[in-house]
Amino acid sequence: MRKLRKIKLLATYGFFFVIFIISINKLQNDFAQNYTKENFIYKFDKSYTKNGHRLAIVVPYRDRLEELNMFVPHMSKFLLSKNLDFKIFIVNQIDSYRFNRATLINIGFALSKLENFDYLAMHDIDLLPLNQAINYSYPSPSEVLHLTPSGIHPRYNYPTFIGGILLISHILYQQVNGMSNRYWGWGLEDDEFYIRLKEKNIKVLNPQNITTGKKTFLHNHDKNARPRDMRMSSKQYEISKKRDHLTGLNNLPGLYTVVSRETLYVDKYPYEMIEVVLYCDEYKTPWCKSSS
Predict the structure, then answer these.
(1) How far apart are CA 183 and CA 205, in angstroms?
(2) Residue 127: strand, helix, or coil
(3) Using CB atoms within 10 A of its CB, is residue 14 exposed (0-12), middle (13-18) or buried (19+)?
(4) Out of 102, 140, 224, 250, which could bridge 189 as a Cys pair, Cβ 3.0 to 4.6 Å?
């Protein structure tokens, strides 16, 4: 009798042990499928993302590691809270020419288009949204949304300003031929892009019912530690104030080489670091050189 009870007890323990092992294996498999390094943060049901659109956060970048380490986790948490399908593209200029923000954004657009993103945020790395009412959702196929207009941007304050953060569909960005590639150094490329939008009768919308004013975004910029390269020759200034009908997405091929692409992480939040070398026609735009 005792032997029979012992056999039954061992059989029961054996049964539950097998069930335990099977459960552990299932959990391990589920973890491997759902939480691999590549999608640890971004694994969620895409059916819940707004309108099924895909947002490319395109950040022109050079030597801003401290800002990058703040930007990636802050923006990831903010956008994930909105159930947006997004990816952060850090387009890093590693050559010796002066910084060319517009060409880097053009490159980010071209690469994100290959991955089936359908709208982009042209996004400065030193601007972080603080107000939850700021909306990064797909703007419109016929309009653009400027998230940092005059009165909201912490620094700039003129009516035609469209810098900082601008949401635009891939369709519209293609229609206006992207941004001009001739702007080396800091400034004026946004003003020229504004003209491109106006020529196509594309309306620029601003956020509505935002009451936080210039405190809507954190401007993570130390002007002493990060001085702007704003020097400009008279010839550069003269050309930069004119509408550029020659350059943009149309002449982007051949203007750059992608040296490397790597998925990196800040506090487990992923971004893609894209290192690029730009090429300059020093006869047409000699101000691209650091010494010019």
Answers:
(1) 25
(2) strand
(3) exposed
(4) 102
Mean pLDDT, residues 68-84 taken together: 97
DSSP letters spanning 67-96: HHHHHHHHHHHHHHTTT-EEEEEEEEE-SS
Is CATH 3.90.550.10 what the domain over 53-288 is classified as, yes or no? yes
**Distances 229 to 68, 95, 157, 183, 291 between C-alpha atoms, Å:** 19, 15, 20, 12, 12
pLDDT at site 4:
55
Q: What are phi and psi of 60, to 5 degrees?
A: -70, 135
Which amino acid would we find at residue 230? M
37 pLDDT above the threshold of 90? no
Token pair belonging to 8: 């039954």
| Closest among 87, 265, 252 to 178, alpha carbons compared | 252
Q: To which residue do tokens 């992480």 refer?
A: 265
pTM, 2 dp: 0.82
- Alpha-carbon Rg for the chain, nearest whole angstrom, is 25
272: part of which helix (H) or strand (E)? strand 269-278
Torsion of CA 127, 133, 137, 138, to 10 degrees: -90
Query: What distances in angstroms separate CA 213 from CA 131, 135, 149, 222, 237, one per listed residue?
Result: 10, 15, 10, 21, 32
- Pick 158 or 286 by higher pLDDT: 286
Six-digit token string for 75: 């923006």
Confidence of residue 123 (pLDDT cuts 50, 70, 90): very high
Residue 33, pLDDT > 70, answer no
Q: What Å distances lie between residue 191 and 123, 243, 274, CA to CA?
A: 16, 9, 26
More confident residue, 112 or 20: 112
Q: Give the confidence band of 45 by pLDDT, cuts at 50, 70, 90.
A: very low
Among 51, 55, 60, which Cα is nearest to 42's? 55
